[in-house]
Design goal:
With 394 residues, this protein is mainly beta. It has one domain: Porin (Beta Barrel). It is 12% helix and 54% strand. The strands form two sheets. The protein has a 16-stranded antiparallel barrel with strand order 1-2-3-4-5-6-7-9-10-12-13-14-15-16-17-18. Strand 6 and strand 7 form a beta hairpin.
């Protein structure tokens, strides 16, 4: 009887594993993408030596997903990215998570995810990797900074979510707790302490949440995002700075209307930034940054789209001209703001191929990557940017 019992248990386990394996294979999906860009600027550098024309803008990724059994989803993506001196050549695990649906019916669902999870930030952050899902080659830099992309993109931790449909529309809530990626990137250090020193920032437990409403017809989306990130600086060697702390609190209001041919999108953000305990070479201070953009896309043909955008960034809403900052630091005023007029065109050659072109007229250098432009006095206030992008997906 004991042998029979052991054999029965082994038989049940073997069949369960076989069934799970069959489910795993039946639900597995693999997708990927490759994008190559060209960037030309009249002055300043953006994604490489763009003043002479730069091809240092490459994105390639592959993602896998499967459902080993009903409520569980396992998904991961590996990414290669090259974007000038910010990311010369970077291979990274973009995200890797296990998602468990706790409740699901016709009115909605709720669940929890663990691992390296995308941050619920604004309208575009969770899909910004794939060029096909972005409204333009470069997202509005006033809110979706490419210079600190890794910091905003994903966190190692957990996320709870819920979606519920009513007669007035669908509501969804996502709340994430974890340790943000990108805190140790040299670009983030240069933004805070102005140079790359032996010390480094250490990530700490952070929070981020987003509440979204979508109208019954799906034409209107409204959202509010907020959270807190508190990286701490660990000085090493001959370092003029002490063990200081940075507190970042973003608040983003998002709205999007999608009609038959027009899509109108706007987002407004406040960024509460506090620096303290870095020592006499970086006095304690608190700034409130302000950003907003308005974007209109028009589909001329099913495969051809035009887009226009006005994008504004202020590092300090109480010093929008940068005069106070320049008087205190003797650095150019234009490093504290940027106003960007953008026009672009998208052509979907096929379901797998897409080509884009866009032009930016920029006043200010507030969101330029420090790694590409280390000398603030060498940056020019008024400049132009032209970009091309060829993308493939499967």
């Amino acid at each position: 009887m004991r042998r029979f019992g052991v054999g029965l248990i082994l038989w049940v386990l073997a069949n369960a594993c076989r069934a799970m394996g069959q489910e795993w294979l039946a639900t597995s999906q693999t997708h990927g993408f490759v994008s190559q860009g060209f960037v030309l600027t009249s002055a300043n550098r953006f994604f490489g030596d763009s003043e002479d024309g730069s091809l240092d803008f490459t994105e390639a990724g592959i993602n896998l997903s499967t459902r080993p059994f009903g409520p569980v989803l396992i998904s991961a993506q590996g990414l290669f990215r090259r974007s000038g001196e910010v990311n010369p050549k970077e291979f990274r695990l973009d995200y890797a998570l296990a998602d468990y649906t706790l409740w699901s019916d016709v009115q909605g669902r709720a669940g929890i995810a663990f691992g390296r999870v995308k941050n619920p930030y604004g309208l575009y952050n969770e899909t910004r990797d794939v060029a096909f899902t972005r409204p333009t080659i470069f997202l509005p830099q006033s809110i979706y900074f490419d210079r600190t992309r890794n910091l905003g993109l994903a966190s190692d931790g957990g996320q709870v979510y819920g979606e519920y449909t009513t007669a007035w529309g669908e509501w969804s809530l996502r709340f994430a707790v974890g340790w943000p990626n990108g805190i140790q990137d040299k670009e983030f250090e240069r933004l805070v302490v102005s140079r790359n020193l032996p010390g480094r920032f250490k990530t700490r437990l952070s929070y981020l949440g987003r509440l979204t409403y979508e109208s019954p017809a799906g034409s209107l989306r409204l959202a509010i995002t907020s959270g807190q990130v508190r990286p701490r600086y660990d000085p090493k060697g001959a370092n003029p700075f002490q063990a200081g702390e940075t507190t970042l609190v973003p608040v983003i209001f998002s709205a999007q209307y999608e009609g038959e041919k027009f899509t109108v999108t706007g987002e407004y953000a406040l960024r509460f930034v506090k620096l303290r305990d870095f020592g006499r070479f970086l006095p304690d201070r608190s700034d409130t940054g302000e950003s907003y953009y308005l974007q209109v896309a028009y589909r001329i043909l099913p495969k051809l789209e035009l887009v226009g955008r006005y994008d504004v960034f202020f590092a300090d809403r109480d010093d929008t001209s940068g005069r106070k900052f320049a008087a205190l630091t003797r650095r150019p005023r234009h490093t504290r703001f940027a106003r960007d007029w953008t026009v672009g065109v998208r052509w979907d050659i096929s379901r797998s191929w897409m080509v884009r072109a866009e032009y930016h007229r920029v006043n200010g250098t507030g969101w330029l990557p420090v790694s590409d432009n280390p000398d603030p006095n060498a940056r020019e206030k008024n400049w132009h940017l032209f970009a091309l992008l060829l993308s493939f997906r499967f």
